[in-house]
Amino acid sequence: MAATDLNSDPGIQRPAPEPPKPEAKITVRNVAKVFASGNRLTSALTETNLTVRDGEFVVIVGPSGCGKTTLLRILAGLESPSSGEVKIAASDQNRPLHSMVFQERSIFPWMSVIDNVAYGLKIRGVDRRTALAKAEEFIGKVGLAKFARAYPHELSGGMKQRVSIARAFANDPEVLLMDEPFAALDEQTKLLMQEELLRIWDENKKTVVYVTHSLQEAVLLGDRIIVFSAHPGRIKAEVTVDFPRPRSHKLATTPEFSKLTSDLWELLKDEVIKASRIES
Ligand SMILES: Nc1ncnc2c1ncn2[C@@H]1O[C@H](COP(=O)(O)OP(=O)(O)OP(=O)(O)O)[C@@H](O)[C@H]1O
Fold first, then answer.
1. Which among 39, 63, 275, 277 has most CB atoms closer than 10 A?
2. Which SMART domains is this protein grouped with (predicted)?
3. How many A from CA of 113 to the centre of ligand 1?
4. What is the pTM of this model?
5. 278 pLDDT tier (thresholds 50, 70, 90)
């Protein structure tokens, strides 16, 4: 049979082109981590395999001590894996591979807000004017424009955490690593910050790996949720979150949201029980 040239016959319907597959931004292959302290060995992670697509918001949940922070620290290059490998695909040599936002405030108390936010850019050799302009842009996005020249001691806890987030986004890293960034905030501030993060993320579509204990937060923020087993951690399940974006807290009032949160809890419950036995 002769091959048909689809381009030459206007009567023939061409199959819809496949959407391009987003490339893998983060690849975690067979990663294990054992900590040695004195003559005691602690296995924190076993056989961890994970691929995060470019622009994907991945949330990790799991019981206390299952290795979530360890995985994030390995991704940030702060720990090395005992075995296996981690790769972050760089799109631009001038961009940092990652920025990390921690639970505890990690801004410099002796620097003004704007200098804190511009810090990473200046370290990378971005000229002062460009760095300050970029910093101002993100300070505005997190609602701190009036406080750009203030010092951390003049800010509330939530405002300091906004500075950390502005700094992380202003750095324009290949991936953003967030370790329970809102855990220390009061409930109302946390709700505000979650919506701000959603809004900034919608504008930037950064690749994010986000650790949380809150299942509601995981469902609200994530494209995909990775459920870890109890210590030593390994991936037990993955849940895709299909809710359309932009999202807000209104989503949390829907039955679909409640159902997904409760399904997630069913997946996690046994692991939390196992972890509580390990700890006691
Ligand atoms: N530097 C270290 N030295 C020795 N053991 C460590 C070290 N860091 C972590 N661990 C151990 O590795 C395991 C995983 O710790 P990790 O902090 O990654 O867990 P986690 O899931 O983030 O916990 P949580 O949810 O409570 O923050 C724990 O048993 C912990 O005690």
1. 63
2. AAA (SM00382)
3. 31
4. 0.89
5. low
Contact (CB, 8 A) for 110 and 138: no
State whether 165 and 187 are in the same domain: no
Q: Is it true that the peptide bond before 232 is cis, omega within 30 degrees of 0? A: yes
> Which residue in 179, 264, 274, 266 sits closest to 233, CA to CA?
274
Residue matched to tokens 């995985």 = 71
Span 173-196, mean pLDDT? 91
In whole numbers, what is the pLDDT of the chain averaged over residues? 89
Give the distance (Å) from ligand 1 centre to CA of residue 33.
Answer: 10
Question: Which residues 6+ apart lie within 8 Å of 192 measured at CB?
Answer: 158
Residue 132 confidence (pLDDT): 97
Q: Which residues pair with 32 in a beta bridge?
A: 83
Cβ–Cβ under 8 Å, residues 273 and 68: no
pLDDT tens by residue, 28-38: 999 999 999 88
CA 99 to CA 136: how far, in whole Å?
18
Per-residue model confidence (pLDDT) at position 189: 85
In the reported structure, the alpha carbon of residue 233 is separated from the centroid of ligand 1 by a whole-number distance in angstroms of: 10
d(CA 142, CA 169): 10
Residues 86 and 109 in one domain: no
What whole-number percentage of the chain has pLDDT above 70?
91
CATH code, domain carrying 64: 3.40.50.300
Helices and strands, counts by H and E, the chain:
7, 9
The residue nearest atom 24 of ligand 1, judged by CA position, is: 64
The question of ipTM being above 0.85 is answered as: yes
